[in-house]
Amino acid sequence: MPESASSTRPRVLVLGGGFAGVGATQNLKDSDVDVVLVDKHNYHTFQPLLYQLATGLLETTGVGHSLRDLVKKQDNARVHQATVTAIDLDAREAQFADMEPLGYDYLVLGLGAEVNFFGVAGAPEHAFPLYTLPDAVHLKDHVLARWEEADRQPDLVDDGSLTIVVVGGGPTGVESAGALAELYRGVFTKDYPDLPQDKARIVLVEAGPALFPMFKEELREYTEKALKKRTVEVMTGEVVESISPTRVKLKSGTVIDAHTLVWGAGLQGNALVQSLGLQLERGNRIGVGVDLRVAGHPEVFAVGDIAAITDEKTSQVLPQLGSVALQSGEHAGKTLARIVSGKEPEPFKYRDKGTMATIGRGAAVVQMLGGRTMKGKKAQAAWGTVHLALLPTNEDRTKAVVDWAGAAFTHQRAGRITIGAE
Ligand SMILES: Cc1cc2nc3c(=O)[nH]c(=O)nc-3n(C[C@H](O)[C@H](O)[C@H](O)COP(=O)(O)OP(=O)(O)OC[C@H]3O[C@@H](n4cnc5c(N)ncnc54)[C@H](O)[C@@H]3O)c2cc1C
Predict the structure, then answer these.
(1) Which amino acid residue places its CA nearest to atom 30 of ligand 1?
(2) Which residue among 83, 111, 212 has the greatest number of ligand 1 atoms within 8 angstroms of its CB, and so is best to mutate?
(3) Looking at residue 410, what is its pLDDT?
(4) 275 close to ligand 1 (CB < 6 Angstrom)
(5) With a 6 A CB cut-off, is 330 part of the ligand 1 pocket?
(6) How many whole angstroms separate alpha carbon 275 and alpha carbon 103?
(7) Which residues, 6+ apart, have CB-to-CB distance to 158 below 8 Å?
């Protein structure tokens, strides 16, 4: 057992079972170490597809995968479901809310990021973030409940009960707005034929002057057109000031009657990083060296969203993306395997798969590192290929392809049911 005092092998403690933590763990499979992987959930969350769970396209098992299943063939690894509350880097020990402390010889920090509400009044209480599996289920249930309620009491529609405001013109906001619009116009039109679709608005609010600031102008224009075609109302240069359960107030003074606000506007490093005594980079991320180790702690690796990793090709900090998290986690695992077998660590080299987002059926955008762009069906195929590769198992890939193909032909959303307490 990895926790056994009798073990003489080095213990690698991996905190976080996201792309980064799982990537590190799996790359230690053949190494002479004991690996302990800890996450507060007993599943790995595939965040890029959360919006598909929230809109009924995928079911929970298409987005969450058992962590124990992901390491079941790895004899040197154990999984614990526990919440990390503190890490003492000097004592080399992690503490948990619900488990005895664990010491380590090497630590891989892969705890990801957290939602940042930027101090907007009412956001923590009333906004629906889309960062965890419960977030996605919560949003889906809330939206379905609004439609069922309006079906019973149609006058609620005039109060904005079916209107959704999505905040943030980056990939999370755009993908969510596009998917919600397709759910409304493609599915709910038929599910609720007596409710007026024109009063069920999807409004995308972005503080900056344009959506997708990271993309070239042509892709931004394409995105805006594709969203408008799907009846999403795009408001740029507008900042959300406050949120109540039924109203969204913008700094310009505009008030939108909306009973749902989806928050896709910002992230910050996991709150735990502030207690580590490390100098943090922008967005509370831990700065790392070329081999992903933390300065002053050669036994500690920070990987994925929690880390600020500088790309050796561009000298820019890499974005918080699934492929960055997976590749950095895998690199930490391989580097640790090298270290324990007496070899020198190697620098991390990121293989850029392009920046991409999908807007709806047949509509997506891709921009490669060299500036090459793609849009439409071709971009959607590229998006599908990259995201299928990120899914943890072949079974998950097959499941996603079947669900996507089904939805493409039939508009069907099998997941649009609510299972609440009776
Ligand atoms: C809605 C959304 C859409 C996205 N879309 C895309 C996309 O299309 N393409 C793309 O490449 N990237 C996308 N991303 C980004 C991508 O999902 C992240 O970059 C990636 O998940 C980061 O991986 P990670 O392993 O660093 O962190 P995470 O995946 O966040 O994993 C961190 C893990 O740590 C655990 N954890 C956190 N705190 C504690 C604690 N205190 N105790 C124990 N466990 C803890 C969490 O439960 C989680 O399992 C998206 C992100 C979001 C939120």
Answers:
(1) 112
(2) 111
(3) 67
(4) no
(5) no
(6) 18
(7) 199
